[in-house]
Amino acid sequence: MQEFGARDRGRLRRSPSQTEFVSENRICFTTNRVDRIEHIDATSPETVEKGSQIVREIGKTPILAQDEPGFIANRLGLTLYMEASKLLEDGIASLQDIDTCMKLGYNHPMGPFELADFVGLDTRLRNIESLQRATNDNKWITPKLLREMVQQGYLGDPARKKGSKGGYYEYLEIKR
Asked: 129, exposed or middle or buried, with CB in 10 Å at 0-12, 13-18, 19+?
């Protein structure tokens, strides 16, 4: 694990009048991976180190990041998903080929559409809309197909999303 250096940690400091207390909700944002902690936000290098130590003591890996919309994992994952959606919408590659390419070429356990189905398409939609509002960046304009699917009740894997008609594979009638 590589942490920010002391100079980078200093950027996490706030004004001296602000409290050094860091609530549990501000210590971490957990990802879908149970072995990682995604974000630590603190006011001083000492508090960052204390928070990091607590995270290590519970068997997690601290990853330091500035407080930004989407943090690290979501921003990177959503960027991949957005590009995959563009490839699909532009007819460059099929959904299956995009998923297979990422699994074989990058050793991802799931392709971007399989992961979207796993996470939940309604969740994916909310995350993208939130990033677009927070950044006002057009790269976060929601893919049309995603919006259509959610509006029609395709919310992702029915085993994980109650009431869902399915995800990409079901909507596009593709055998998994």
From this structure: middle
- pTM, to two decimals: 0.74
Angle at 62 between CA 112 and CA 71, to 5 degrees: 45
**Cβ 43 vs Cβ 11: under 8 Å:** no
Q: Do 125 and 151 form a contact (C-beta atoms < 8 A)?
A: no
CATH 1.10.1040.10 boundaries in the chain: 73-171
- Flag whether pLDDT at 10 surpasses 80: no
Report whether CATH 1.10.1040.10 matches the domain 73-171: yes
User: What pLDDT does residue 79 have?
Assistant: 97
Angle of helix 121-135 versus helix 112-119 axis, rounded to 10: 100
Where does the pLDDT of residue 93 fall: very low under 50, low under 70, confident under 90, or very high at 90 and above?
very high
| Long-range CB contacts (within 8 A, 24+) of 87-92 | 88/113, 88/145, 89/143, 89/144, 89/145
Phi and psi angles of residue 30, each rounded to the nearest 5 degrees, phi first: -85, 145
Terminal CA-to-CA distance of the chain, rounded, Å? 36
Amino acid, single-letter form, for residue 55:
V
Strands (E), 4-156: none
